[in-house]
Amino acid sequence: MSQLSKDFLWGGAIAANQAEGAYNVGGKGLSLMDIATAGKKGVSRHFTDGIQDHVYYPNHDGVDFYHHYQEDLAMCQEMGFRCFRTSIAWSRIFPHGDEEQPNEEGLKFYDDLFDEMLKKGMQPVVTISHYEMPLYLVKHYGGWANRKLIDFYLHYCEVIFDRYKGKVKYWMTFNEINSVILMPEIAGVLDRSRDDFIERSYQAAHHQFVASSQAVQLGHKIDPNNKIGCMVLTLVQYPLTAKPEDVELAEKAMRMKTFSFSDIQVRGHYPHYVKKHVERLGIHVHMEPNDLEDLKKGCVDFVGFSYYSSSAASSDPNVEKTGGNLSSGVKNPYLETSEWGWQIDAKGLRYILNRFYERYEIPLFIVENGLGYNDQINEHGYIEDDYRIAYLKAHIEEMKKAILDDGVDIIGYTPWGCIDLVSAGTGQMSKRYGFIYVDRDDQGNGTMKRSKKKSFDWYKQVIASDGEKL
Length: 470
Ligand code: BGP
Fold this sequence. Notes:
By secondary structure, the protein is of the alpha/beta class. The chain is 39% helix and 12% strand. The chain has 15 helices and 14 strands. The chain has helices spanning 16-19, 58-61, 65-79, 90-93, 104-119, 135-141, 148-163, 179-182, 197-222, 244-267, 272-281, 291-297, 346-360, 386-405, 454-464, and strands at 9-13, 83-87, 123-127, 170-172, 227-233, 236-239, 302-306, 310-313, 336-337, 343-344, 364-368, 410-413, 436-438, 450-452. The strands form four sheets. Strands 1-2-3-4-5-7-11-12 form an eight-stranded parallel beta barrel, surrounded by four helices. Helix 9 (197-222) crosses helix 12 (291-297). The two termini are 14 Å apart. The model has no long low-confidence stretch (mean pLDDT 95). The structure holds 6-O-phosphono-beta-D-galactopyranose (BGP). The site of 6-O-phosphono-beta-D-galactopyranose has 15 residues, from loops.
């Protein structure tokens, strides 16, 4: 038997700032991402102070999910989605982030969106903050380095937990929480030239951990049915050779870049190796008396994570480095590489699923996985994305082995960018992930018309057969 259970949550994932567009509609304030995705470098470019009039920002329009969601969800329903992952744009609910009263128009938008999902048989899976903190909090408070952010975030959480009670059950507190250290700008910690940049980044991380643990407690109090997870970017690294130094380096990278974040959120305390690391950095992270108690009380219910690629670790400084999602590993000669230099490794998914599960023994949720590709339309106006089908098929096969052969408990699978959207890393449309094509290019031309790629019908049969027909 190679079918998965009927309640396995097959679906897809997007994020507000990369899909919704309508960046200044409905009372929405500016978010940090509204000034960060212009040009070719996406989130890694320098953050400007505000909108530059002469620059085109692809995510200001996104794929206009804000106005197209009914049509988009109808297509997802046709594929048989049982869940749909998106995020709430914090700045739609609190345009500045520090207000007392929420913006009713923003709340109403997500009410309608979640109602539409439920009507179409999809469980909403909601990321509370997917890189989209209000810009005002960055400019006036210094982002997450400021402790006040905990209260603002908690107030936001309280409002949305109350409002969407009974509609949303699955939540994640911060998208790829490791980005707070790997790319602190995403948490509003700016200015790398300052001496205290690293200290502020670790302080910001501590604040996010405390905020997440308080949000978990609050979410459970408001609705005991809520399932609240962390969301970690998995940076799988293998030793390049069997040389003990390489093994040691790979293990260290796994610990520091991936497990340190999930360890804190799942186990509720700072692990010994993180304490040592902070000590070695010679920085001081300020903690309030109840912080450690909060971490303990606010352990997450599941581990949500993204997985795209893996890399290798080598003690040889001359070995070629590889690209990847905030990865700093070296090239693995046994793997193929995507157009953007991300190494493709389906077996790495089974590996990380097993590592997580043996470590924590709580349910896992694969909330991002997929292949970014510059799709070309053929002479019949169709996209034959066999490369995407091959990528997803191989990953689903490994996921199935983890479930059926290894006994790992997995809630669901939501491939990233199920509808084409603006890439976070490049800030452009041309790095596409979708089953659904959106007619929009990097310069902002196109009708926004939706159409099915070949992978659309393929994924539909995967879901209809409970993962049997790949
Ligand atoms: C993850 C982010 C997503 C998404 C994805 C793909 O890090 O959570 O927002 O963008 O990576 O990355 P990219 O858009 O750079 O191809």
